[in-house]
Amino acid sequence: MRVFLVAGEPSGDRLGGALMEGLKTLVPDIEFDGVGGPLMQAQGLVSRFPMSELSVMGLVEVLPKFFHLKSRIAETAQAVLDTQPDVLITIDSPDFSLRVAKQVKARSNIRTVHYVAPSVWAWRPKRADKMAKVIDHVLALLPFEPPYMENAGMECDFVGHPVASEPVATDAQIAQFRADHGLGDAPILLALPGSRRGEVDRLAPVFGAALDLYLKDRPDMRVVVPAVAHVADTVAAHVRSWKGQPVVVDPRNIDTDQAVASKRAAFAAAEIALAASGTVSLELAAQSTPMVIAYKLTWLTQKIAERMVKLDTVTLVNLVSETRTVPECLLDDCTPETIAAALASVSAAPGAQEQAMAVTMERLGRGGEAPGLRAARAVLERMTP
């Protein structure tokens, strides 16, 4: 069996790696091709080009890279057509992935699977109808998503999220992480300003100013900043002037398993986290780390988004747990003063998010079959006539 996979973000690479591991368990002689990051490459994928080229977010931010991305879309679609895999699996990054699927479907009958249902319940509800023209089967991360996809005419299975099956860092791993980075017994604040250069450039200055305010009352606290490889230098440049003697956790020059374990230990060691909006809220919930979520967009992208978004929260922990316990500082509220106040509020009641995080992990599949294996089984079962 031959599978062509396409991922464009670190979160997609995480999903793709778990899916590939599940597929290898069920079909040992499977062959992979496509585009992915280090976790997918660790499962045997030789990426056709660096996944980081696709890590662009925002309606305006895409414009400078439009022609390059358009070329990569055509190149990727042609590779699928040339190799004729049994299935094309695109993972998140819908603006890229679905354009590849569209070109593939226009010239073949290759089966298409998209991993991560588009957030039609949050914005652009007609997107599912357009997607149904080029996607046969959707793998959904959230339990309430299948009806939206099925109503549009696609097969859909809720498979949970791989983060729910990942281990919690042990006390020994946390102690080793502290020793490796010279943190001693100091309380730790985790800062996560994003995985794309554009969002790091927008958020890091705001995060730094917010920490200046918050840490005035916590002079003993150290700041730890895990970074993904392709923005590690950007992150390091931004945090040099921050308070809290920031430690950048750089995954380069160490093997993938060690990098994942180090990041997990950093999350578990933290007393509180300040993070950009995204899948990282689930990673924090998996390690039971209280959090504040903050995000801002470019002015034009924000104005467009304000007209389209239908929900009062963007944080997955809030959505899955059906609570609003994780404070958000978004768009015009993404200011140093608002963020510092939110951090102080969470610090004053660190257990307030505990139940919501536990419910989130349970609903995403903790304690059951590994989501990557569930996803692999769903792909294979839907392919069987």
UniProtKB/TrEMBL annotation:
Keywords: Glycosyltransferase, Lipid A biosynthesis, Lipid biosynthesis, Lipid metabolism, Transferase
Record-level GO cellular component terms: membrane
Superkingdom of origin: Bacteria
EC number from the UniProt entry: 2.4.1.182
GO MF term set: lipid-A-disaccharide synthase activity; phospholipid binding
Keyword Glycosyltransferase in record: yes
Cited InterPro entries: Glyco_trans_19 (IPR003835)
Catalytic activity: a lipid X + a UDP-2-N,3-O-bis[(3R)-3-hydroxyacyl]-alpha-D-glucosamine = a lipid A disaccharide + UDP + H(+)
A Gene Ontology biological process term: lipid A biosynthetic process
PANTHER family, A to Z: LIPID-A-DISACCHARIDE SYNTHASE, LIPID-A-DISACCHARIDE SYNTHASE, MITOCHONDRIAL-RELATED
Sequence similarity: Belongs to the LpxB family.
Function summary: Condensation of UDP-2,3-diacylglucosamine and 2,3-diacylglucosamine-1-phosphate to form lipid A disaccharide, a precursor of lipid A, a phosphorylated glycolipid that anchors the lipopolysaccharide to the outer membrane of the cell.
Protein name: Lipid-A-disaccharide synthase
Species in which this protein is naturally found: Ruegeria intermedia
